[in-house]
Amino acid sequence: MGLFGFTLGVSALMFELMVGNSWGVPHVVAIPFAVCAVLFSLAAWWRIRSSAGALTGRWAAIWGLVLAVGVLANFGRLVMTGGAINIAEKQRNQRHCVNQLRMMDGAKEQWALENHKTAADAPKESDIFGPKKYIPARYICPSGGSYSLNSMSNKPACNFPDHTL
Could you tell me if 61 and 5 are in contact, meaning their C-beta atoms sit under 8 angstroms apart? Predict the structure, then answer.
């Protein structure tokens, strides 16, 4: 029973390692193995302890328990911080995108001043982006949106939600 708990703990750990290596295995796959490893390891440890030396395998039971608790703790960490990390990343991407939109707006204004353009004129990307232009390389939205420069009377825009000037 102790060796079985250890084997389940190792299986749960292997699933977690596969997830960490981006093999496409979801974290929840390891949870049933980890829970079973905890239960079997505790049962084995209790039976071994109660047998007064008749049963062996105490270390297998303990290591199965340690591995399974580690996997469950890692899953708990992911659950507890996953939402916060995701929100922080979205906010960072939004700020980055808005900053790029501001720089594009400044480059448009500079282009209009230097080329005597009116509010109805719209720059092409080749007027703004490129070597020896206002912005050396075309910007890419970190969230996967796409930019449009628009006319001088309108600000540059990103089609990703909440990425606006």
Answer: yes
